[in-house]
């Protein structure tokens, strides 16, 4: 063997042995600093699904929770130290949200973006003030962009009867339906459902990560989720799923069925209807992904399939005559327009938006990712969570002790 080839072979052996020692030593994970290509062997194309063999649910005193989950996540991280996707964070906010978004940015930066420097797009129906721009810009390690929403994207479409919309708000106020009285909340939900991805500031990006004021991240994020999305052809991803309040969407599923009838060509084969419906699409079980956290494909939201879907629902008026949230709108779209493999659940992203937390069960994973969440507060297997339906839909074994649909 020529000397130079021998040298490379030795480097390769060092790399493989080093990697093996790294996994055996199980020290806390050091996040990669480099953005160069990896010398490591090819990893599995996706991290393993969340562990299916926890010692017990929500019991942080148990040792040796399933190690598979942690080692798979770490292996993926070790073999994907860098690379970069065409992606941005995106936040819809008011000037008055400044301190809550400052807190959220700080956590996103500390846990992930300080190594990656992705941009951050802020959108508002009003102009952002200098205070908001100065503080957010000082916290974001990438470039900040501030956009004002065009009034036609944050107002009533001409087919809406505004008197009827006002009456509905008053009825919902009396019924104490959450945000049922609010006009701006409805504009917000419609904007997040059908318009944010069309804003000129987002045109050149392929992926987005939605961050809301006040949210928290509890674990280091060991690799670039945008790159993971790209490499694995994922279009929509979530950390928490749950049931929607019936009173906010009484006729939404009728609208969805009408769309499915009008556009059978848009409905994906091998979709996640099983997550959304217990009777093959006749009725909606109200399961949705909680959209205050999303990592998703802007190209998918800008696709003809999604735009036809949004347009069809928007025409029915339920954003104003009911109180349709952007979470069920996005989730149903992801459930019927995408193949189920194009969705992804992030077990390793520990997350809080008032009042629910996702905290990984695998203790080794929590140690390795320096998590600070209390696993007994994990929402995944509580009665209001839809995660077990997601597992069933994707043939992921449920952890022992979890009822099929708790
Ligand atoms: N610019 C602007 N942003 C808004 C307005 N209303 C809500 N938002 C933003 O839209 C997103 C969703 O609003 P939230 O009030 O958090 O709604 P929610 O998550 O359903 O309810 P919470 O439990 O109160 O958080 C957040 O990023 C808000 O900052 C508004 O009137 N103007
Ligand atoms: Mg919120």
Automatic annotation (TrEMBL):
- Give the Pfam families listed for this entry: Glyco_transf_15
Family the UniProt entry places it in: Belongs to the glycosyltransferase 15 family.
Q: Which organism was this protein described from?
A: Aspergillus cavernicola
UniProt-annotated stretches for the region Disordered? 34-71
The Pro residues compositionally biased stretches are: 40-52
Q: Which PANTHER family match?
A: ALPHA-1,2 MANNOSYLTRANSFERASE KTR1 (PTHR31121:SF6)
Q: Where is the composition biased (Low complexity)?
A: 53-71
The record's section on InterPro entries has:
Glyco_trans_15, Nucleotide-diphossugar_trans
Any one GO molecular function term: transferase activity
Q: Print the keywords alphabetically.
A: Glycosyltransferase, Transferase
This protein is called what?
Answer: Nucleotide-diphospho-sugar transferase
């Amino acid at each position: 063997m020529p000397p130079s080839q021998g040298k490379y072979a030795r480097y390769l052996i060092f790399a493989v042995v080093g990697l093996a020692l790294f996994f055996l030593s199980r020290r806390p994970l050091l996040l990669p600093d480099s953005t160069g290509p990896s010398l490591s062997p090819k990893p599995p194309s996706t991290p393993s699904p969340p562990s299916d063999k926890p010692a017990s649910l929500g019991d942080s005193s148990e040792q040796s929770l399933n190690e598979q989950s942690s080692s798979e996540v770490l292996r993926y991280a070790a073999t994907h130290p860098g690379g970069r996707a065409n992606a941005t964070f995106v936040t819809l906010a008011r000037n008055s949200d400044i301190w809550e978004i400052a807190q959220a940015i700080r956590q996103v930066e500390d846990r992930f973006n300080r190594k990656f420097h992705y941009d951050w797009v802020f959108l508002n129906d009003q102009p952002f003030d200098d205070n908001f721009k100065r503080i957010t810009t000082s916290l974001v390690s990438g470039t900040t962009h501030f956009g004002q929403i065009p009034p036609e994207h944050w107002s009533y479409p001409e087919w809406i009867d505004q008197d009827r919309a006002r009456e509905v708000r008053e009825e919902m106020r009396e019924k104490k339906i959450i945000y049922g009285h609010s006009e701006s909340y409805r504009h917000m939900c419609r904007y997040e459902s059908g318009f944010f991805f069309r804003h000129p500031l987002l045109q050149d990006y392929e992926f987005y990560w939605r961050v809301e004021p006040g949210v928290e991240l509890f674990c280091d994020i060991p690799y670039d989720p945008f790159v993971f999305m790209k490499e694995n052809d994922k279009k929509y991803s979530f950390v928490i799923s749950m049931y929607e309040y019936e009173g906010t969407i009484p006729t939404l599923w009728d609208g969805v069925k009408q769309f499915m009838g009008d556009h059978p060509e848009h409905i994906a084969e091998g979709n996640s209807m099983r997550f959304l419906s217990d009777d093959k699409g006749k009725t909606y079980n109200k399961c949705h992904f909680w959209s205050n956290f999303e990592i998703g494909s802007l190209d998918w939201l800008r696709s003809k399939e999604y735009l036809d879907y949004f347009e069809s629902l928007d025409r029915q008026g339920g954003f104003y005559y009911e109180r349709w949230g952007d979470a069920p709108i996005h989730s149903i779209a992801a459930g019927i327009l995408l193949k189920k493999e194009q969705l992804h659940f992030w077990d390793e992203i520990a997350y809080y938006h008032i009042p629910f937390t996702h905290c990984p069960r695998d203790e080794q994973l929590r140690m390795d990712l320096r998590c600070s969440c209390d696993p007994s507060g994990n929402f995944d297997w509580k009665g209001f969570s839809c995660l077990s339906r997601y597992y069933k839909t994707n043939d992921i074994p449920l952890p022992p002790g979890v009822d099929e649909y708790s």
